[in-house]
Design goal:
globular; alpha/beta; 7% strand
């Protein structure tokens, strides 16, 4: 994107001031990860652009396309002094602020040049939350009404914003998000004392209530359909929030406290949306000036046949991981509470990148906890799609995830007594507990069972990962996992496979100075010292690689044969079959 911006600037199509703002504010937005595929299709009534369900913001669609989104801050001139933030008031960062019209014009020009298909708009709090929200709304209103842009828009809501402004922004955005920032109120008061829990949870509650009123509230994944028996309630931080909307209907929550009409609500179809004959919101004060200067691209008749829905793609939030001392169990329990109390579409985790020197934060040279972030996302997936509860994934005795193994595998090994599961008689919830079996595979198994029995040979065609699943299932009464394996041996097998796969990925990802990927043959020709000096290679890689044969695929059956030989045999096998 920056190379394209440079070409535009050299060609005289962008003023130097706007280019500088975009460079600074685009870079400042990179720490916010709460944007991804929208899952929402906005009805296009004669406008330009589209918000396709396929995905936004550098997401890979089912047909292999990468869809881009302009991710930018409206301003980085913040009045808050959050210790973990690069844009905090005490930071000596360069400060820039877009005018709403500047950013709206820039977005539509990028869209017309096919650089982007949507906008992710966030901002630091400049002047006040309401002042910031007014400027964001003005920018989005110009995009929708003046430029006629119907593409995807994700707007970040500033904590403390007024209810009226939140409603207006929700009517011009597809998705809203309010960052919870940290997993506990103690961490929030320590690292971001100017942000209060009430200021964060009040807009979340309003978004949920409005979606209930419009009957557009949808839960994340399978959370309503697969109700975990082990769900233990809301997090203490959320316990004081109101549960009921006016009239007695529950405002927030998933399984607990959610009204039946909200639990069964589905997105209104495009045809129904087009049939509604009234405008969604009052005309803002600056709307008349826009008509005088540029008019509307969308005709009045076409506009009046379409009623904007409030945040039809739902709401998300983000937590920073690694800046504070909470355990993984606290983080996952907070995520579960957010899903069930506010029906979030997604809770994002952002590994903390040290940008400030503070005794309350990790040292500046601390690497971001990327592996922890990855395992938390896997645990989050179990909450949303596999019917797990936070108390099942992590316990008080084991409050942190095993970063060497998938959380689903760890749960299965901890509850080995429930396996193997017979695929021809198990329920959907039971099938989802089998490692290597996903939602799509389960649906295929259930469909085939209506017609005939599922054979072991069919499972691979259905997408089941047999190298993992065969130890936890039976098919038509037959077990295909070889001789009986205990949890410790299975754990060693899975850990060895993941470690070997990671080593292969590291070695094959090493780049030569010219940028070309190294092959197995070229790796063998390099000296140990050269290998250790390469990016991504750790100390000792050169000594191991120089003494090994060419990298080859790991022979899983050989690993299983050697498992009976103890730890020494396992280590010997790993060192002689790298890859």
């Amino acid at each position: 994107m920056l190379s394209q911006l440079g070409m535009i600037r050299e060609g005289g199509m962008m003023e130097s001031g706007i280019f500088e703002k975009l460079t600074v504010l685009g870079d400042g937005a990179k720490y916010d990860v709460s944007c991804s595929s929208s899952g929402h299709a906005r009805l296009n009534v004669g406008r330009i652009g589209s918000a396709a369900c396929a995905g936004i913001c550098h997401s890979w669609t089912a047909d292999g396309r990468c869809i881009s989104l302009l991710k930018v801050l409206l301003s980085n001139d913040c009045v808050y002094d959050c210790k973990y933030c690069i844009n905090r008031r005490s930071s000596d960062s360069v400060r820039r602020t877009f005018e709403p019209k500047e950013l709206a014009d820039l977005t539509i020009e990028f869209y017309r040049r096919n650089y982007i298909e949507g906008l992710f708009l966030s901002s630091a709090v400049f002047v006040s939350p309401d002042h910031t929200a007014e400027r964001m709304y003005e920018c989005l209103w110009l995009l929708r009404e003046v430029h006629g842009f119907a593409g995807y828009v994700h707007a970040k809501i500033v904590p403390g914003v007024s209810a009226e402004l939140l409603t207006q922004i929700g009517l011009v955005a597809d998705r809203l998000s309010v960052n919870i920032e940290l997993p506990s109120s103690e961490s929030l008061s320590l690292l971001a004392p100017q942000k209060k829990p009430d200021a964060i949870f009040t807009p979340m509650t309003q978004i949920t209530r409005t979606q209930i009123e419009q009957k557009t509230l949808k839960s994340a994944g399978n959370m309503r359909r697969l109700k975990p028996a082990g769900y233990g309630g809301d997090d203490d931080w959320l316990s004081g929030l109101p549960r009921n909307v006016d009239g007695g209907a529950a405002a927030t929550g998933g399984v607990r406290g959610m009204p039946e009409e909200a639990a069964g609500a589905t997105d209104t179809t495009d045809a129904a949306l087009a049939a509604e004959i009234e405008d969604a919101a009052d005309v803002p004060a600056f709307r008349g000036d826009a008509r005088k200067t540029g008019g509307h691209i969308v005709s009045e008749n076409r506009r009046k046949t379409y009623k904007e829905k409030f945040a039809p793609a739902g709401q998300t939030t983000q937590m920073i991981i690694g800046a504070s001392s909470e355990s993984d169990r606290q983080i996952i329990k907070m995520s579960e509470a957010l899903y069930r109390r506010f029906t979030m579409k997604r809770v994002y985790f952002s590994a903390y990148v040290p940008v400030a020197d503070s005794p309350a934060l990790p040292p500046l040279l601390t690497p971001p906890p990327l592996k922890r972030e990855h395992r938390l996302y896997q645990a989050d997936w179990l909450l949303r799609f596999y019917g797990f509860s936070a108390d099942e994934i992590l316990t008080e005795d084991a409050p942190d995830l095993d970063y060497d193994l998938d959380p689903k595998v760890v749960w299965a090994l901890r509850h080995i007594e429930v396996f193997p599961i017979e695929v021809n008689t198990a329920t959907e919830a039971e099938l989802l507990r089998i490692p290597g079996v996903g939602n799509i595979s389960v649906q295929r198994i259930m469909r085939q069972r209506r017609v005939q029995k599922v054979r072991y040979e069919d499972l691979k065609k259905m997408g089941v990962v047999l190298k993992r699943a065969r130890y936890f299932l039976t098919c038509d009464g037959h077990y295909y996992g070889g001789r009986e394996q205990g949890p410790e041996k299975l754990r060693a097998l899975f850990a060895l496979e993941e470690q070997s796969a990671h080593t292969i990925e590291t070695l094959h990802g090493v780049q030569t100075s010219s940028g070309a990927a190294l092959s197995s043959a070229s790796l063998d020709a390099l000296s140990g010292a050269t290998l250790e000096a390469m990016p991504g290679a750790s100390c000792g890689t050169g000594h191991k690689s120089a003494a090994l044969p060419p990298v080859k695929r790991l022979d899983a059956s050989a690993i299983r044969r050697e498992l009976g030989g103890g730890e020494k045999a396992q280590l010997s096998l790993f060192e002689t079959s790298l890859g």
